[in-house]
Amino acid sequence: IRCWSNIPFITMPLSRAHGKSFAHRSELKHAKRIVVKLGSAVVTRGDECGLALGRLASIVEQVSMLQNQGREMMIVTSGAVAFGKQRLRHEILLSQSVRQALHSGQNQLKDMAIPVLEARACAAAGQSGLMALYEAMFTQYSICAAQILVTNLDFHDEQKRRNLNGTLHELLRMNIVPIINTNDAVVPPPEPNSDLQGVNVISVKDNDSLAARLAVEMKTDLLIVLSDVEGLFDSPPGSDDAKLIDIFYPGDQQSVTFGTKSRVGMGGMEAKVKAALWALQGGTSVVIANGTHPKISGHVITDIVEGKKVGTFFSEVKPAGPTVEQQGEMARAGGRTLAALQPEQRAEIIYRLADLLTDQREEILLANKKDLEEAENKGRLALPLLKRLSLSTSKLNSLAIGLRQIAASSQDSVGRVIRRTRIAKDLDLEQVTVPIGVLLVIFESRPDCLPQVSALAIASGNGLLLKGGKEAGHSNQILHHLTQEALSIHGVKDAVQLVNTREEVEDLCRLDKLIDLIIPRGSSQLVRNIQKAAKGIPVMGHSEGICHVYVDTDASVEKVTRIIRDSKCEYPAACNALETLLIHRDLLRTPLFDQIIDMLRVEQVKIHAGPKFASYLTFSPSEVKSLRTEYGDLECCIEVVDSVQEAVEHIHKYGSSHTDVIITENEKTAEFFLQHVDSACVFWNASTRFSDGYRFGLGAEVGISTSRIHARGPVGIEGLLTTKWLLRGDNHVVSDFSEHGSMKYLHESLPLPQRNTN
Q1: What is the per-residue pLDDT for 1?
Q2: How many CB atoms neighbour CB 334 within 10 A?
Q3: How far apart are CA 631 and CA 592, in angstroms?
Q4: Whose CB has fewer CB within 10 Å in the chain, the N or C terminal residue?
């Protein structure tokens, strides 16, 4: 064991019986015994004189929550010096003000000189108060805390080490939270120049090492080190190119440049990393995170234990492939290269992918069969999801046809001029289409989504990150392999990446510096979760598909049952399936109404009655619980309205702005409906199921958007493009256009170049 005053870690950990550290963040939820190390910057206020009470209370709340879950929590804390300094300064100011008042007759507090306070004296004055504060806070959660003060010598004496170990185990057995600190009142003086000049805050190297040493000695599962930085960066935080390291592996020290140390305490990140690596070698998982950020400090500890991507996680298991951050960077670079290709080259890639889907049909279906067998054996998928998971020869043929449509229509998508303006003589402005950047598409159970979305991303020159469900793992792997094979013909293999790491969807939604747009494809619950989790990244999609069909008094008998049957029964799990059927009141108790009900019964559609419809019936079906329900099965709601105006109002109140239909032969009524219903898709005498990118002639879609910004309805290539402005001048400056300048604005519209219609 090396001396702690010089090197803050022990060269070899003691042997441990509890096994290896956790390999992945997702396993941290299984941590039973946890040490939380609070750095000086976390515990103290910004003026370094006194404690950050609000922050400390939040930390105590989180520790108490985990303790009450049955975990064994320990805290290694700093703060005694800062707390003592606050008390001693108060006493000195009070004493000096009395003396000055006696000598000069006036109180000149602003001219008083505060002497440099000796750190050990501050610690002696602050330790009791710090512990009393912890006790008062933990008492609010019916938890008892106990203080343990240690010095370096306590770890050099074998008997003292055994005593310390026994004491800690006994406290944990009694559900008491041990609060451990170095006994700063009796430690040796700090090394020269090791403390902040004029402040004399004692070094916290000992606490970094103390936390690691205790974690190993006590066979803890997890050590959480809270500091005033987000974690470990590949260069000093604040520098232009600094990037947070998500996972740090032993041996990566050479790739890291350590910067300055924290504002209080002198442990520094290098000392924390050494202590963390030593603890990791001893079998304890480690996370270094920010405990001072106001937006995350209130849940940073619980987030880490839940496995969320917070701070830097230390792991001994290095994944075989790239990290998701590296994949994002590869997709960005690959997407830019893809966008720079000629349109014919991008189309050639898509044509190649379409050919591979049919040429490699047997391999694809074999992989899909494995997914289906695993899903059926585990029984984790409902029948509608199993149908979505299943691939067939006809599905693959339809996919190939759709991809060829995309290739044919993508010739002039990127770089197309949509506006030309002559600003002034020899000063021309153009607005041209460009890719959005990097797309993250998250999809459930639908492996056919992968080639569709990939083709649209390729056609629009976007980089792509794909996150598929585990249930389609084998299918997604083979389809992604074929996609990269097609991309390779023009050297842009990296443009489309399949995320296979254990990243949770919520963590992916936080990568705002890597991802420009998130597109969820799946259940309404998935979409809602992603919309909630996305931090600073726009989400394109819809959380619900509550589609209506309104049957007007002038509806054709022949058309009504056909359209309703197709809208509800052709594929009831689809987001564009009918969920609420609105019937004009005058149609009740007519032969047309009876035909509708008979058809739904034959198709085994369960009917739920809306409040008004139920009031007309003596014996009604089960009354609907909510008129805002997406059934996704052979169920629907029937409600009665008095007019087309009331139908529109009902749709606006209970719909999801997805797809709504009117069935009528009255053109005036139909046009009123088409113009007044504010949904992404509004149809007249056509099934709701036409709301689809392939059926619209887009080739395929990345999803259906109910958003009012950028793209709405089925989103094809056009929805994955944005624009930029190109200005071509000749020594033009704004001052030439001033009141006394030599030039005048023209703002003339210029003709657009001829589009490629081949």
Answers
A1: 30
A2: 22
A3: 25
A4: C
**Per the structure block, which two tokens stand in for 501?**
């790491």
pLDDT at 115: 62
pLDDT tens digits, 358-389: 999 999 999 999 999 998 888 777 777 788 88
- The pLDDT assigned to 207 comes to 78
Which domains, and CATH codes, for the chain? Answer: 25-93+118-186+203-314 (3.40.1160.10), 324-533 (3.40.605.10), 548-701 (3.40.309.10)
User: Low-confidence residues of the chain, pLDDT below 70?
Assistant: 1-19, 47-50, 96-116, 187-206, 253-268, 502-503, 620, 755-758
Q: Can you read off the two tokens belonging to residue 552?
A: 């007007």
Joined together, the tokens standing for residue 31 give 């941590």
* 222-227 and 496-498 strand pairing: unpaired
Q: What is d(CA 234, CA 169) in angstroms, rounded to the nearest whole number?
A: 38
Residue 434: partners with Cβ closer than 8 Å, 6 or more residues away = 339, 414, 415, 461, 721, 722, 723, 724
Do residues 95 and 56 make contact, with C-beta atoms less than 8 angstroms apart? no
Where residue 721 falls (left for φ over 0; alpha for ψ -120 to 50; beta otherwise) is beta
Strand partners, 314: 248, 286
The helix (H) or strand (E) run that includes residue 177 is strand 176-182
Residue 704 zone, left/alpha/beta (φ > 0; ψ -120 to 50; rest): beta
> How does DSSP classify residue 51?
B
Q: Dig out the tokens for 675 from the structure.
A: 């113009």
**What is the Cα 53 distance to its own chain's centre?**
30
Whole-angstrom distance, CA of residue 608 vs CA of residue 617: 12
